[in-house]
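pinned: reference chain
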Amino acid sequence: MKTSAPPAGDFEKMSPLRQFTLLLAPYKNKVLLVFALIFLTNLLSLALPWGLKVVIDEGVAGRDISVLNRLAAGLVLVFILKFFVGFRCEYLINLVGEKAVCDLRAKLYTHLQKLSVQYADKTPKGEILSGILGDIDGIRNFLFGGMVDFAYASLSILFILVVLAVLDWKLALVSLAYLPVFAFAFYRLTPRLTEQYRQARERYAELTSHLHEVLNGLRIVAGFAKEDEEALRFNSKQREIVATTMAGHKLGIGLWMTSELMSSLGLVVLIWFGARAVFAGRITVGTLMAFYAYVGMLLSPVIKVTVVNNYYQEAVASLERVGRLLAEDPKIKEAPHSFIVGRLRGEVRFDNVSFGYDEAKRVLFDINLDVKEGTCIALVGRSGSGKTTLINLLLRFYDPQEGAVLIDGRDLRDLDLKSYRSRIAMVLQDDYLFNASVRENILYGNPIASAHQVAQAARSAMAVGFITQLSKGYDTPIGERGIALSCGQRQRISIARALLRDPALLILDEATSAVDSETERAIVLEAYGNLMRGRTTFIIAHRLSTVVSADRIVVLDDGRITETGSHAGLLAKKGVYWRMWSQQTDHAAPMSPVSFD
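pinned: its C-alpha coordinates
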Protein backbone atom coordinates (compact mmCIF):
# COMPACT_ATOMS: atom_id res chain seq x y z
CA MET A 1 0.00 0.00 0.00
CA LYS A 2 1.34 3.42 -0.92
CA THR A 3 2.14 5.78 1.90
CA SER A 4 1.24 9.43 1.71
CA ALA A 5 4.01 11.77 0.69
CA PRO A 6 5.17 14.39 3.16
CA PRO A 7 4.62 18.09 2.62
CA ALA A 8 6.86 19.32 -0.18
CA GLY A 9 8.70 21.72 2.10
CA ASP A 10 9.75 18.91 4.47
CA PHE A 11 11.50 16.92 1.75
CA GLU A 12 14.43 19.34 1.49
CA LYS A 13 15.12 19.14 5.25
CA MET A 14 15.50 15.36 5.28
CA SER A 15 18.79 13.51 5.11
CA PRO A 16 19.58 11.85 1.74
CA LEU A 17 19.03 8.41 3.28
CA ARG A 18 15.60 9.47 4.58
CA GLN A 19 14.73 10.94 1.17
CA PHE A 20 15.60 7.70 -0.62
CA THR A 21 13.67 5.72 1.98
CA LEU A 22 10.64 7.96 1.39
CA LEU A 23 10.82 7.40 -2.37
CA LEU A 24 10.80 3.63 -1.87
CA ALA A 25 8.26 3.55 0.98
CA PRO A 26 5.23 2.88 -1.28
CA TYR A 27 6.99 -0.28 -2.49
CA LYS A 28 8.37 -1.46 0.83
CA ASN A 29 7.14 -5.05 0.40
CA LYS A 30 8.94 -5.39 -2.92
CA VAL A 31 12.04 -3.70 -1.49
CA LEU A 32 12.09 -6.13 1.45
CA LEU A 33 11.79 -9.01 -0.99
CA VAL A 34 14.71 -7.60 -3.01
CA PHE A 35 16.90 -7.50 0.10
CA ALA A 36 15.87 -11.04 1.02
CA LEU A 37 16.86 -12.20 -2.47
CA ILE A 38 20.16 -10.34 -2.18
CA PHE A 39 20.79 -12.07 1.14
CA LEU A 40 20.08 -15.47 -0.46
CA THR A 41 22.25 -14.70 -3.51
CA ASN A 42 25.18 -13.80 -1.29
CA LEU A 43 24.85 -17.05 0.64
CA LEU A 44 24.76 -19.05 -2.59
CA SER A 45 27.86 -17.21 -3.85
CA LEU A 46 29.86 -18.55 -0.88
CA ALA A 47 29.40 -22.15 -2.02
CA LEU A 48 32.10 -22.37 -4.71
CA PRO A 49 35.23 -21.51 -2.66
CA TRP A 50 34.04 -23.76 0.16
CA GLY A 51 33.45 -26.55 -2.36
CA LEU A 52 37.01 -26.00 -3.62
CA LYS A 53 38.28 -26.54 -0.07
CA VAL A 54 36.29 -29.78 0.28
CA VAL A 55 37.52 -31.13 -3.10
CA ILE A 56 41.19 -30.47 -2.31
CA ASP A 57 41.16 -31.63 1.31
CA GLU A 58 38.79 -34.61 0.98
CA GLY A 59 38.33 -35.55 -2.68
CA VAL A 60 41.83 -35.02 -4.08
CA ALA A 61 43.76 -35.92 -0.95
CA GLY A 62 41.64 -39.04 -0.36
CA ARG A 63 41.16 -39.82 -4.06
CA ASP A 64 37.38 -40.15 -3.36
CA ILE A 65 35.47 -39.72 -6.64
CA SER A 66 32.11 -39.81 -4.85
CA VAL A 67 32.95 -36.58 -3.00
CA LEU A 68 33.73 -34.94 -6.34
CA ASN A 69 30.45 -36.19 -7.87
CA ARG A 70 28.29 -35.04 -4.97
CA LEU A 71 30.02 -31.68 -4.86
CA ALA A 72 29.65 -31.11 -8.61
CA ALA A 73 25.95 -31.98 -8.50
CA GLY A 74 25.43 -29.71 -5.50
CA LEU A 75 27.19 -26.79 -7.18
CA VAL A 76 25.09 -27.19 -10.34
CA LEU A 77 21.92 -26.94 -8.25
CA VAL A 78 23.32 -23.92 -6.39
CA PHE A 79 24.15 -22.11 -9.65
CA ILE A 80 20.71 -22.85 -11.16
CA LEU A 81 19.01 -21.54 -8.02
CA LYS A 82 21.27 -18.49 -8.03
CA PHE A 83 20.27 -17.80 -11.66
CA PHE A 84 16.53 -17.74 -10.89
CA VAL A 85 16.98 -15.79 -7.67
CA GLY A 86 19.20 -13.24 -9.43
CA PHE A 87 16.74 -12.86 -12.33
CA ARG A 88 13.84 -12.19 -9.97
CA CYS A 89 15.92 -9.77 -7.94
CA GLU A 90 17.01 -7.72 -10.97
CA TYR A 91 13.46 -7.62 -12.31
CA LEU A 92 12.12 -6.27 -9.02
CA ILE A 93 14.93 -3.71 -8.84
CA ASN A 94 13.98 -2.33 -12.26
CA LEU A 95 10.27 -2.38 -11.47
CA VAL A 96 10.65 -0.51 -8.18
CA GLY A 97 13.17 1.92 -9.70
CA GLU A 98 10.88 2.79 -12.62
CA LYS A 99 7.87 3.34 -10.36
CA ALA A 100 9.79 5.38 -7.78
CA VAL A 101 11.22 7.64 -10.49
CA CYS A 102 7.76 8.09 -12.04
CA ASP A 103 6.37 8.99 -8.61
CA LEU A 104 9.04 11.61 -8.04
CA ARG A 105 8.67 13.07 -11.52
CA ALA A 106 4.88 13.26 -11.03
CA LYS A 107 5.38 14.88 -7.63
CA LEU A 108 7.63 17.51 -9.19
CA TYR A 109 5.22 18.12 -12.06
CA THR A 110 2.23 18.45 -9.73
CA HIS A 111 4.14 20.82 -7.47
CA LEU A 112 5.19 22.95 -10.44
CA GLN A 113 1.55 23.34 -11.44
CA LYS A 114 0.74 24.61 -7.95
CA LEU A 115 3.46 27.23 -8.02
CA SER A 116 2.46 30.71 -9.05
CA VAL A 117 2.83 32.09 -12.56
CA GLN A 118 5.36 34.43 -10.98
CA TYR A 119 7.70 31.49 -10.33
CA ALA A 120 7.40 30.30 -13.95
CA ASP A 121 8.02 33.87 -15.18
CA LYS A 122 11.15 34.35 -13.09
CA THR A 123 12.72 30.88 -13.37
CA PRO A 124 14.50 29.89 -16.60
CA LYS A 125 12.59 27.11 -18.34
CA GLY A 126 15.82 25.17 -18.81
CA GLU A 127 16.33 25.05 -15.05
CA ILE A 128 12.83 23.65 -14.58
CA LEU A 129 13.37 21.08 -17.34
CA SER A 130 16.72 20.13 -15.85
CA GLY A 131 15.01 19.45 -12.51
CA ILE A 132 12.30 17.25 -14.01
CA LEU A 133 14.56 15.40 -16.46
CA GLY A 134 18.27 15.73 -15.65
CA ASP A 135 18.13 15.56 -11.87
CA ILE A 136 15.59 12.76 -11.95
CA ASP A 137 17.95 10.80 -14.20
CA GLY A 138 20.74 11.17 -11.63
CA ILE A 139 18.43 9.76 -8.95
CA ARG A 140 17.22 7.07 -11.37
CA ASN A 141 20.76 5.78 -11.97
CA PHE A 142 21.24 5.24 -8.25
CA LEU A 143 17.83 3.68 -7.64
CA PHE A 144 18.16 1.28 -10.58
CA GLY A 145 21.48 -0.23 -9.66
CA GLY A 146 23.51 1.78 -7.24
CA MET A 147 21.52 1.29 -4.08
CA VAL A 148 20.96 -2.43 -4.60
CA ASP A 149 24.57 -2.94 -5.70
CA PHE A 150 25.65 -1.21 -2.51
CA ALA A 151 23.45 -3.52 -0.42
CA TYR A 152 24.70 -6.57 -2.33
CA ALA A 153 28.36 -5.50 -2.00
CA SER A 154 28.01 -4.65 1.69
CA LEU A 155 26.39 -7.99 2.52
CA SER A 156 28.97 -9.79 0.40
CA ILE A 157 31.83 -8.09 2.27
CA LEU A 158 30.23 -8.97 5.62
CA PHE A 159 29.66 -12.62 4.72
CA ILE A 160 33.16 -13.06 3.29
CA LEU A 161 34.76 -11.48 6.36
CA VAL A 162 32.83 -13.90 8.59
CA VAL A 163 33.92 -16.91 6.53
CA LEU A 164 37.54 -15.71 6.48
CA ALA A 165 37.48 -15.34 10.26
CA VAL A 166 36.11 -18.88 10.58
CA LEU A 167 38.80 -20.29 8.28
CA ASP A 168 41.73 -18.51 9.99
CA TRP A 169 41.26 -15.21 11.81
CA LYS A 170 44.99 -14.46 12.03
CA LEU A 171 45.45 -14.81 8.29
CA ALA A 172 42.31 -12.71 7.75
CA LEU A 173 43.72 -9.84 9.84
CA VAL A 174 47.02 -9.87 7.96
CA SER A 175 45.55 -10.04 4.44
CA LEU A 176 42.85 -7.40 5.09
CA ALA A 177 45.02 -4.83 6.86
CA TYR A 178 44.44 -2.46 3.93
CA LEU A 179 40.72 -2.00 4.66
CA PRO A 180 41.11 0.71 7.37
CA VAL A 181 43.38 2.74 5.04
CA PHE A 182 40.83 2.48 2.26
CA ALA A 183 37.96 3.39 4.61
CA PHE A 184 39.81 6.55 5.69
CA ALA A 185 40.42 7.63 2.08
CA PHE A 186 36.76 6.87 1.28
CA TYR A 187 35.58 9.00 4.20
CA ARG A 188 37.80 11.98 3.31
CA LEU A 189 37.07 12.10 -0.44
CA THR A 190 33.32 11.50 -0.39
CA PRO A 191 32.29 15.10 0.60
CA ARG A 192 34.42 16.46 -2.23
CA LEU A 193 32.66 14.10 -4.65
CA THR A 194 29.26 15.40 -3.53
CA GLU A 195 30.30 19.01 -4.16
CA GLN A 196 31.70 18.23 -7.61
CA TYR A 197 28.51 16.48 -8.68
CA ARG A 198 26.41 19.32 -7.28
CA GLN A 199 28.35 21.82 -9.38
CA ALA A 200 28.01 19.55 -12.42
CA ARG A 201 24.21 19.46 -12.01
CA GLU A 202 24.16 23.27 -11.82
CA ARG A 203 26.20 23.52 -15.05
CA TYR A 204 23.85 21.07 -16.78
CA ALA A 205 20.87 23.22 -15.74
CA GLU A 206 22.55 26.31 -17.23
CA LEU A 207 23.25 24.44 -20.48
CA THR A 208 19.65 23.19 -20.72
CA SER A 209 18.34 26.70 -20.08
CA HIS A 210 20.62 28.14 -22.77
CA LEU A 211 19.60 25.47 -25.29
CA HIS A 212 15.89 26.04 -24.57
CA GLU A 213 16.35 29.79 -25.04
CA VAL A 214 18.21 29.44 -28.35
CA LEU A 215 15.68 26.97 -29.77
CA ASN A 216 12.82 29.34 -28.92
CA GLY A 217 14.68 32.25 -30.53
CA LEU A 218 16.07 30.34 -33.50
CA ARG A 219 14.59 32.76 -36.04
CA ILE A 220 16.27 35.70 -34.32
CA VAL A 221 19.60 33.86 -34.12
CA ALA A 222 19.46 33.03 -37.82
CA GLY A 223 18.11 36.45 -38.80
CA PHE A 224 20.98 38.23 -37.07
CA ALA A 225 23.54 35.67 -38.30
CA LYS A 226 24.57 34.82 -34.75
CA GLU A 227 24.98 31.06 -35.24
CA ASP A 228 28.75 31.15 -34.68
CA GLU A 229 28.47 33.26 -31.51
CA GLU A 230 25.78 30.98 -30.08
CA ALA A 231 27.87 27.93 -30.94
CA LEU A 232 30.80 29.45 -29.05
CA ARG A 233 28.59 30.14 -26.02
CA PHE A 234 27.22 26.60 -26.15
CA ASN A 235 30.70 25.05 -26.38
CA SER A 236 31.95 27.28 -23.57
CA LYS A 237 29.22 25.97 -21.28
CA GLN A 238 30.04 22.43 -22.39
CA ARG A 239 33.70 22.93 -21.46
CA GLU A 240 32.62 24.06 -18.00
CA ILE A 241 30.55 20.89 -17.63
CA VAL A 242 33.45 18.71 -18.80
CA ALA A 243 35.87 20.39 -16.37
CA THR A 244 33.50 20.06 -13.41
CA THR A 245 32.45 16.51 -14.26
CA MET A 246 36.03 15.33 -14.85
CA ALA A 247 37.06 16.71 -11.46
CA GLY A 248 34.41 14.45 -9.92
CA HIS A 249 35.44 11.52 -12.12
CA LYS A 250 39.06 12.05 -11.07
CA LEU A 251 38.14 11.63 -7.41
CA GLY A 252 35.96 8.61 -8.17
CA ILE A 253 38.64 6.94 -10.29
CA GLY A 254 41.19 7.63 -7.56
CA LEU A 255 39.03 5.79 -5.02
CA TRP A 256 38.45 2.93 -7.43
CA MET A 257 42.11 2.45 -8.33
CA THR A 258 43.14 2.81 -4.68
CA SER A 259 40.76 0.03 -3.70
CA GLU A 260 42.09 -2.18 -6.52
CA LEU A 261 45.72 -1.51 -5.52
CA MET A 262 45.05 -2.19 -1.84
CA SER A 263 43.15 -5.39 -2.64
CA SER A 264 45.94 -6.64 -4.92
CA LEU A 265 48.57 -5.95 -2.24
CA GLY A 266 46.36 -7.86 0.20
CA LEU A 267 46.46 -10.90 -2.10
CA VAL A 268 50.28 -10.76 -2.21
CA VAL A 269 50.38 -10.64 1.58
CA LEU A 270 47.93 -13.57 1.72
CA ILE A 271 50.05 -15.73 -0.60
CA TRP A 272 53.21 -15.10 1.45
CA PHE A 273 51.68 -15.60 4.92
CA GLY A 274 49.30 -18.35 3.75
CA ALA A 275 52.06 -20.50 2.28
CA ARG A 276 54.04 -20.16 5.51
CA ALA A 277 50.91 -21.25 7.47
CA VAL A 278 50.62 -24.38 5.26
CA PHE A 279 54.33 -25.14 5.76
CA ALA A 280 53.81 -24.85 9.53
CA GLY A 281 50.80 -27.20 9.35
CA ARG A 282 48.40 -24.61 10.81
CA ILE A 283 46.04 -24.77 7.80
CA THR A 284 45.45 -27.19 4.93
CA VAL A 285 46.11 -26.53 1.25
CA GLY A 286 42.35 -26.62 0.64
CA THR A 287 41.82 -23.95 3.30
CA LEU A 288 44.50 -21.74 1.69
CA MET A 289 42.88 -22.11 -1.75
CA ALA A 290 39.45 -21.32 -0.31
CA PHE A 291 40.92 -18.38 1.58
CA TYR A 292 42.53 -17.09 -1.61
CA ALA A 293 39.25 -17.46 -3.53
CA TYR A 294 37.27 -15.61 -0.84
CA VAL A 295 39.75 -12.74 -0.73
CA GLY A 296 39.52 -12.58 -4.53
CA MET A 297 35.74 -12.44 -4.20
CA LEU A 298 36.17 -9.57 -1.73
CA LEU A 299 37.94 -7.45 -4.35
CA SER A 300 34.82 -7.04 -6.54
CA PRO A 301 32.40 -5.75 -3.85
CA VAL A 302 35.01 -3.39 -2.42
CA ILE A 303 35.51 -1.84 -5.86
CA LYS A 304 31.74 -1.86 -6.42
CA VAL A 305 31.22 0.14 -3.23
CA THR A 306 33.49 2.89 -4.59
CA VAL A 307 31.74 2.92 -7.96
CA VAL A 308 28.30 2.99 -6.31
CA ASN A 309 29.49 5.86 -4.14
CA ASN A 310 29.92 7.92 -7.32
CA TYR A 311 26.29 7.23 -8.27
CA TYR A 312 25.21 8.02 -4.72
CA GLN A 313 26.99 11.38 -4.59
CA GLU A 314 25.50 12.37 -7.95
CA ALA A 315 22.05 11.31 -6.72
CA VAL A 316 22.51 13.29 -3.49
CA ALA A 317 23.40 16.41 -5.52
CA SER A 318 20.30 15.84 -7.67
CA LEU A 319 18.10 15.32 -4.61
CA GLU A 320 19.38 18.60 -3.20
CA ARG A 321 18.19 20.46 -6.30
CA VAL A 322 14.89 18.57 -6.40
CA GLY A 323 14.39 19.34 -2.72
CA ARG A 324 14.91 23.06 -3.35
CA LEU A 325 12.25 22.97 -6.05
CA LEU A 326 9.80 21.06 -3.86
CA ALA A 327 10.45 23.52 -1.04
CA GLU A 328 9.38 26.43 -3.26
CA ASP A 329 6.21 27.70 -1.62
CA PRO A 330 3.20 28.34 -3.91
CA LYS A 331 2.30 32.01 -3.73
CA ILE A 332 -1.32 31.34 -4.69
CA LYS A 333 -2.99 29.23 -2.03
CA GLU A 334 -6.57 28.13 -1.76
CA ALA A 335 -8.64 28.72 1.36
CA PRO A 336 -9.06 25.63 3.62
CA HIS A 337 -12.74 25.38 2.71
CA SER A 338 -12.82 27.05 -0.70
CA PHE A 339 -16.14 27.52 -2.47
CA ILE A 340 -16.76 25.14 -5.40
CA VAL A 341 -18.03 27.23 -8.29
CA GLY A 342 -21.09 25.76 -9.99
CA ARG A 343 -22.76 28.21 -12.33
CA LEU A 344 -20.88 31.46 -12.86
CA ARG A 345 -22.95 34.55 -13.73
CA GLY A 346 -19.90 36.65 -14.58
CA GLU A 347 -20.33 39.71 -12.36
CA VAL A 348 -16.85 41.12 -11.65
CA ARG A 349 -15.75 43.78 -9.21
CA PHE A 350 -12.31 45.20 -8.54
CA ASP A 351 -12.59 46.72 -5.08
CA ASN A 352 -9.85 49.25 -4.29
CA VAL A 353 -7.18 46.95 -5.79
CA SER A 354 -3.48 47.78 -5.65
CA PHE A 355 -0.77 45.41 -6.85
CA GLY A 356 2.92 45.12 -7.69
CA TYR A 357 4.96 42.20 -9.02
CA ASP A 358 7.61 43.49 -6.66
CA GLU A 359 6.33 44.43 -3.20
CA ALA A 360 8.30 47.66 -3.32
CA LYS A 361 7.02 48.74 -6.74
CA ARG A 362 3.29 48.95 -7.44
CA VAL A 363 1.93 48.75 -11.00
CA LEU A 364 -1.79 49.12 -10.14
CA PHE A 365 -3.20 51.75 -7.79
CA ASP A 366 -6.69 51.91 -6.22
CA ILE A 367 -8.53 50.14 -9.04
CA ASN A 368 -12.31 50.26 -8.63
CA LEU A 369 -14.35 48.68 -11.41
CA ASP A 370 -17.81 47.06 -11.50
CA VAL A 371 -18.70 44.82 -14.43
CA LYS A 372 -22.23 43.51 -14.85
CA GLU A 373 -23.10 40.04 -16.10
CA GLY A 374 -22.87 39.64 -19.88
CA THR A 375 -21.24 43.00 -20.59
CA CYS A 376 -18.16 43.68 -22.71
CA ILE A 377 -15.36 45.69 -21.10
CA ALA A 378 -12.42 46.95 -23.16
CA LEU A 379 -9.13 47.75 -21.42
CA VAL A 380 -6.97 50.20 -23.35
CA GLY A 381 -3.85 52.19 -22.61
CA ARG A 382 -0.17 52.45 -23.39
CA SER A 383 2.17 49.48 -23.00
CA GLY A 384 2.90 49.00 -19.31
CA SER A 385 -0.22 50.80 -18.15
CA GLY A 386 -1.48 47.72 -16.28
CA LYS A 387 -4.00 46.12 -18.67
CA THR A 388 -2.54 42.60 -18.66
CA THR A 389 -1.83 42.84 -14.92
CA LEU A 390 -5.52 43.46 -14.33
CA ILE A 391 -6.34 40.27 -16.27
CA ASN A 392 -3.67 38.33 -14.33
CA LEU A 393 -5.48 39.27 -11.13
CA LEU A 394 -8.82 38.26 -12.64
CA LEU A 395 -7.38 34.83 -13.48
CA ARG A 396 -5.80 34.74 -10.03
CA PHE A 397 -2.33 34.20 -11.37
CA TYR A 398 -1.46 36.74 -8.67
CA ASP A 399 -3.23 38.14 -5.60
CA PRO A 400 -3.52 41.88 -4.95
CA GLN A 401 -1.53 43.36 -2.08
CA GLU A 402 -4.49 45.57 -1.25
CA GLY A 403 -8.19 45.30 -1.99
CA ALA A 404 -10.03 42.34 -3.49
CA VAL A 405 -11.28 40.93 -6.78
CA LEU A 406 -14.89 39.75 -6.41
CA ILE A 407 -16.67 37.26 -8.66
CA ASP A 408 -20.46 37.13 -8.27
CA GLY A 409 -19.97 38.86 -4.93
CA ARG A 410 -17.36 36.41 -3.59
CA ASP A 411 -13.70 37.20 -2.98
CA LEU A 412 -11.70 35.35 -5.62
CA ARG A 413 -9.39 34.08 -2.86
CA ASP A 414 -12.33 32.14 -1.36
CA LEU A 415 -13.10 30.22 -4.57
CA ASP A 416 -11.88 26.78 -5.60
CA LEU A 417 -9.42 27.66 -8.37
CA LYS A 418 -10.02 24.65 -10.60
CA SER A 419 -13.80 25.04 -10.62
CA TYR A 420 -13.50 28.81 -11.16
CA ARG A 421 -11.02 28.64 -14.03
CA SER A 422 -13.07 25.90 -15.68
CA ARG A 423 -15.69 28.62 -16.31
CA ILE A 424 -13.19 30.88 -18.09
CA ALA A 425 -11.80 30.88 -21.64
CA MET A 426 -8.97 32.93 -23.11
CA VAL A 427 -7.85 33.96 -26.56
CA LEU A 428 -4.44 35.57 -26.29
CA GLN A 429 -2.08 37.58 -28.48
CA ASP A 430 0.24 34.61 -29.01
CA ASP A 431 -2.25 31.91 -28.11
CA TYR A 432 -0.59 28.56 -27.60
CA LEU A 433 -1.48 25.66 -29.86
CA PHE A 434 -0.08 22.22 -29.12
CA ASN A 435 1.90 19.96 -31.41
CA ALA A 436 -1.18 17.89 -32.19
CA SER A 437 -4.06 17.80 -34.67
CA VAL A 438 -6.60 20.57 -35.26
CA ARG A 439 -9.25 18.42 -33.54
CA GLU A 440 -7.11 17.80 -30.44
CA ASN A 441 -6.35 21.52 -30.10
CA ILE A 442 -10.04 22.45 -30.28
CA LEU A 443 -10.95 19.64 -27.86
CA TYR A 444 -8.55 21.12 -25.31
CA GLY A 445 -11.42 23.47 -24.43
CA ASN A 446 -13.70 20.51 -23.63
CA PRO A 447 -12.14 17.03 -23.97
CA ILE A 448 -15.51 15.22 -23.77
CA ALA A 449 -17.16 17.19 -26.58
CA SER A 450 -18.59 15.26 -29.53
CA ALA A 451 -17.39 15.51 -33.13
CA HIS A 452 -20.58 17.47 -33.92
CA GLN A 453 -19.80 19.99 -31.17
CA VAL A 454 -16.23 20.38 -32.46
CA ALA A 455 -17.52 21.05 -35.96
CA GLN A 456 -20.09 23.53 -34.63
CA ALA A 457 -17.42 25.41 -32.67
CA ALA A 458 -15.19 25.55 -35.75
CA ARG A 459 -18.16 26.80 -37.82
CA SER A 460 -18.95 29.55 -35.31
CA ALA A 461 -15.26 30.53 -35.28
CA MET A 462 -15.35 30.77 -39.10
CA ALA A 463 -12.59 28.14 -39.25
CA VAL A 464 -14.36 25.38 -41.21
CA GLY A 465 -13.29 26.80 -44.57
CA PHE A 466 -9.56 26.41 -44.09
CA ILE A 467 -9.80 23.27 -41.91
CA THR A 468 -11.55 21.29 -44.66
CA GLN A 469 -8.82 22.31 -47.09
CA LEU A 470 -6.04 20.87 -44.90
CA SER A 471 -4.53 17.54 -45.97
CA LYS A 472 -6.31 15.51 -43.26
CA GLY A 473 -8.99 18.00 -42.26
CA TYR A 474 -9.56 18.05 -38.51
CA ASP A 475 -6.92 15.34 -38.03
CA THR A 476 -4.13 17.37 -39.65
CA PRO A 477 -1.11 17.86 -37.36
CA ILE A 478 -0.31 21.57 -37.05
CA GLY A 479 3.19 21.43 -35.53
CA GLU A 480 4.59 23.06 -32.42
CA ARG A 481 2.72 26.26 -31.54
CA GLY A 482 0.61 25.71 -34.70
CA ILE A 483 3.51 26.64 -36.99
CA ALA A 484 1.74 25.03 -39.99
CA LEU A 485 -1.05 27.63 -39.80
CA SER A 486 -1.17 31.35 -40.47
CA CYS A 487 -1.72 33.85 -37.63
CA GLY A 488 -5.36 34.29 -38.57
CA GLN A 489 -5.93 30.53 -38.75
CA ARG A 490 -4.33 30.02 -35.35
CA GLN A 491 -6.58 32.69 -33.89
CA ARG A 492 -9.69 31.00 -35.27
CA ILE A 493 -8.62 27.64 -33.82
CA SER A 494 -8.18 29.43 -30.47
CA ILE A 495 -11.64 30.95 -30.81
CA ALA A 496 -13.13 27.52 -31.60
CA ARG A 497 -11.38 26.12 -28.52
CA ALA A 498 -12.86 28.89 -26.38
CA LEU A 499 -16.34 28.39 -27.88
CA LEU A 500 -16.25 24.67 -27.14
CA ARG A 501 -15.57 25.51 -23.49
CA ASP A 502 -18.78 27.59 -23.36
CA PRO A 503 -17.34 29.95 -20.71
CA ALA A 504 -19.20 32.42 -18.53
CA LEU A 505 -16.17 34.72 -18.47
CA LEU A 506 -14.13 35.45 -21.61
CA ILE A 507 -10.72 37.13 -21.90
CA LEU A 508 -9.34 38.45 -25.18
CA ASP A 509 -5.81 39.73 -24.58
CA GLU A 510 -4.41 41.52 -27.66
CA ALA A 511 -5.97 38.64 -29.57
CA THR A 512 -5.71 40.24 -33.01
CA SER A 513 -2.51 42.28 -32.69
CA ALA A 514 -0.44 39.68 -34.58
CA VAL A 515 -2.65 39.70 -37.70
CA ASP A 516 -3.12 42.27 -40.45
CA SER A 517 -6.06 44.66 -40.52
CA GLU A 518 -7.99 42.72 -43.15
CA THR A 519 -7.69 39.45 -41.20
CA GLU A 520 -8.52 41.28 -38.00
CA ARG A 521 -11.66 42.72 -39.58
CA ALA A 522 -12.75 39.22 -40.67
CA ILE A 523 -12.12 37.74 -37.23
CA VAL A 524 -13.94 40.55 -35.41
CA LEU A 525 -16.88 40.65 -37.78
CA GLU A 526 -17.36 36.92 -38.20
CA ALA A 527 -15.99 35.08 -35.17
CA TYR A 528 -15.89 37.40 -32.18
CA GLY A 529 -19.61 38.09 -32.32
CA ASN A 530 -20.35 34.38 -31.91
CA LEU A 531 -17.76 34.00 -29.16
CA MET A 532 -18.73 37.01 -27.04
CA ARG A 533 -22.51 36.77 -27.26
CA GLY A 534 -24.08 36.46 -23.77
CA ARG A 535 -20.73 36.32 -21.94
CA THR A 536 -18.93 38.74 -19.66
CA THR A 537 -15.95 39.72 -21.79
CA PHE A 538 -12.71 41.56 -21.12
CA ILE A 539 -10.87 42.78 -24.22
CA ILE A 540 -7.33 44.12 -24.26
CA ALA A 541 -6.69 45.64 -27.66
CA HIS A 542 -3.86 47.53 -29.29
CA ARG A 543 -6.05 48.56 -32.20
CA LEU A 544 -8.86 50.68 -30.81
CA SER A 545 -11.00 49.93 -33.86
CA THR A 546 -11.73 46.50 -32.39
CA VAL A 547 -13.33 47.87 -29.21
CA VAL A 548 -15.58 50.65 -30.47
CA SER A 549 -18.70 48.55 -29.78
CA ALA A 550 -17.70 47.51 -26.24
CA ASP A 551 -20.30 48.32 -23.57
CA ARG A 552 -17.63 50.20 -21.66
CA ILE A 553 -14.07 51.22 -22.43
CA VAL A 554 -11.69 51.55 -19.46
CA VAL A 555 -8.60 53.67 -20.05
CA LEU A 556 -5.55 52.83 -17.90
CA ASP A 557 -2.52 55.05 -17.50
CA ASP A 558 0.40 54.31 -15.19
CA GLY A 559 -1.62 51.76 -13.25
CA ARG A 560 -4.67 53.97 -12.67
CA ILE A 561 -8.08 54.19 -14.30
CA THR A 562 -8.20 57.63 -15.90
CA GLU A 563 -11.35 57.39 -18.03
CA THR A 564 -14.34 55.08 -18.53
CA GLY A 565 -17.24 55.25 -20.91
CA SER A 566 -18.50 54.33 -24.35
CA HIS A 567 -16.52 54.97 -27.51
CA ALA A 568 -18.63 57.96 -28.45
CA GLY A 569 -18.66 59.35 -24.93
CA LEU A 570 -14.89 59.15 -24.54
CA LEU A 571 -14.29 60.80 -27.89
CA ALA A 572 -16.57 63.64 -26.80
CA LYS A 573 -14.43 64.17 -23.67
CA LYS A 574 -11.34 64.71 -25.82
CA GLY A 575 -9.10 63.18 -23.17
CA VAL A 576 -6.55 60.34 -23.21
CA TYR A 577 -8.75 57.99 -25.28
CA TRP A 578 -9.49 60.71 -27.84
CA ARG A 579 -5.75 61.36 -28.29
CA MET A 580 -5.05 57.62 -28.72
CA TRP A 581 -7.88 57.32 -31.26
CA SER A 582 -6.68 60.36 -33.17
CA GLN A 583 -3.13 59.01 -33.40
CA GLN A 584 -4.35 55.70 -34.82
CA THR A 585 -6.99 57.02 -37.21
CA ASP A 586 -4.60 59.63 -38.63
CA HIS A 587 -2.57 56.79 -40.12
CA ALA A 588 -5.21 54.18 -40.97
CA ALA A 589 -8.82 54.02 -42.03
CA PRO A 590 -11.00 53.18 -39.02
CA MET A 591 -12.96 49.94 -38.91
CA SER A 592 -16.68 50.24 -39.01
CA PRO A 593 -18.39 49.69 -35.66
CA VAL A 594 -19.29 46.06 -34.99
CA SER A 595 -22.24 44.90 -32.95
CA PHE A 596 -21.70 42.01 -30.55
CA ASP A 597 -25.36 41.75 -29.58
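why pinned: The beta strands are 348-355, 364-371, 376-381, 402-407, 410-411, 424-428, 505-509, 536-540, 552-557, 560-565. The chain is about 65% helix and 10% strand.
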